[in-house]
Amino acid sequence: MPAADTAQGMIPHAGDTTVSWSVLVQARLREAVGARQVARRLAATSAEYPHLGPAPAVTTVDGAELAELRESFATRPYVRGDPLVRVALTPERSTMVLAAHHSAVDGLGLLALLGSAIGHPVSSSASGIGPRLPRRSFGAAALRRISGAFRHPPARTVPTGCDRPGDLLVTLRARVMKLSTADLVVAAGRAVARHAARRAGHDRIVAAVGVSRSGGDRPEPRDESAYFLLPIASTTDSSTVTSTLTAHGPEPAPPAGTALTGRVVRWLRGALADRVGATYLVSNLGAVDAGGTVSELAFFPIAGGRSGVAFGAATVGDTTTVTIRARHRHLGEDTARDILSELFRQLPVQPHG
Length: 353
Description:
Chloramphenicol Acetyltransferase
């Protein structure tokens, strides 16, 4: 969906302005890159792909302030006239933070931007779902979700956060030879279930799984995302998740440009926000190949909803980095680290290192 402006100037995605819609990666580079080179390369990419907006400036940030800048990139809204890409380098130029609005790129599109910035193509083992059609129309899906909101709403994480604006971004890395999306979905579900709110007998855990229609072999800086909604029971295993992701269609995207669609989306995101959607989201970039130029990569997808939790994953070599993202007011850092630790314990092959 192309970027569009609200009356307040914020740029929505799928009609929603309740979150910033900023997806980002943090890359540790094996060799330093120059800020001018990065700026020049991204300017060329913006010219080739005009939907990215004006060319971004490159910010230099001290290592001690890196976490604060990363949070700013994640949380600060994009407004009309802004570049839809943000980039920063540490003074020694060995760490890069790259963010973009989700209406411009998805996770694989962000890898394409990273490749442009460092001057080396970046690819991924992630496979796309192709032009697979949704299982149902947007109208039918909306009615189904409204019905579910009253009959069996999804569980939410118990609030453990603080009175602070912005997003919490936490990472945990370990040596994992292979981490499939299905394994990640199941492990995250079991970890989240330990912190999920039980209300009026409703303890249904629902996972949103972010995917791309194109594969990661030659990604382009575009948004070709789609997603699945999967109920996660205590008996759900990786084979069940894999079967659903390969055999069924994704959730339908809202039709663009209709007033009715906008009202439905606003209602679902507003009055019913705590009773629709997913308990958590998972997005896995797979095994990332940057030709040896990147040693570690952390990916932070969008955390939507009133108590949304999002898990991102990326593997470079034998190092897998899993992230958790949530609003500060919903999740405390200690709880986030506990959830990540439990996620790794739930993986079928225990990580090491």
